[in-house]
Amino acid sequence: MHPNPSYRSDDRALMETLLDEIGFGTVFLTTPDGPRVAHTPLVSTGDGAVQFHIARANALARHLDGATALAVINGPDAYVSPRWYSNRKTVPTWDYISLELEGRVRHMDDDGLEALLHTLIERGETRLGGDQWNAQETPADIWAKLFGAIRGFELEILAWRPTLKLHQGTTAEDRANIASGLENSGSPALAQLMRTLAP
């Protein structure tokens, strides 16, 4: 998390929206074998936890149950050029959205993992629109084989640490110019967040 307190937020609804919209993150844990990481889809339970799955062969799989881990969800980010400031005598920086979730992890049973997979499938297929794929299209033997190759986990969130670095503290004119610069250079999502979230 960025040390500047003006980049933080207590807006839980915003954090839940980031979780839902991005839906993918990184889980970190220090293990007896050293620091390890997994990249995984994440689903909020809506009551203070996130669920995810990783391959059984992942180096984290045997260490997560009962551990305290860190999940990180990265939102849009972009380089910010001094050319967008009213006074160009400064240096470049990077604006970004990130959410850190720290909490205790527990292994999910097979029923919980099955439900998680169907939630992920429904979310992904709905976002694609059109003729949706259905899990029943996978033969039972193939589903069972692939299901056996993963493990499901739930992280009970004990700390929410968002960073919304959107040029808070600069002038409204500079923020408007930076937002336009971001939009014109291919970062419209970050520009929109700057216009709606930065004071």
From TrEMBL:
**Pfam families per UniProt:** FMN_bind_2
Query: Which InterPro entries does the annotation name?
Result: Split_barrel_FMN-bd, TR_PAI2-type
Bilayer-crossing regions: none
Instruction: Supply the Gene3D superfamilies for this chain.
Output: Electron Transport, Fmn-binding Protein, Chain A (2.30.110.10)
Q: Write out the coiled-coil annotation as residue ranges.
A: none
PANTHER family membership:
PROTEASE SYNTHASE AND SPORULATION PROTEIN PAI 2 (PTHR35802)
Q: What is this protein called?
A: FMN-binding negative transcriptional regulator
Report the source organism. Pontixanthobacter rizhaonensis
